[in-house]
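ok so i was messing around last nite and threw this chain in just to see what happens. nothing serious, just curious
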Amino acid sequence: MFSRRRKRKKYKFADDQAAVDTVISLIFGGLSILITVGCIIYSTIQGGKVSDRVGILMLMSLVMGLTGLGFGIHSFRLVEGDNNLKRTSVIVSILALVLLLVMYLI
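result:
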């Protein structure tokens, strides 16, 4: 007789308590690490003879790492969000940049 309205499930990437800048920083830092590791594996398989596209991907990884670090540092100014998640996002971005620096020095 009475029909109940079902609430539609909304899928979210983060909790309501997380700052948006923190989530963006985590995504950019993670993608930067994945691209760098993927380029390293591809270069190793090809014996170091790769096209210019790998260099462009490494530059994109650098830009994503720097952008992630910027968003991570900016997230500390926001009130909402957990400080542990903010620290983790900064650490992931710094790890991506250190990995790129090590690859540049080698």
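not much to say yet. The CA atoms of residues 9 and 35 lie 32 Å apart.
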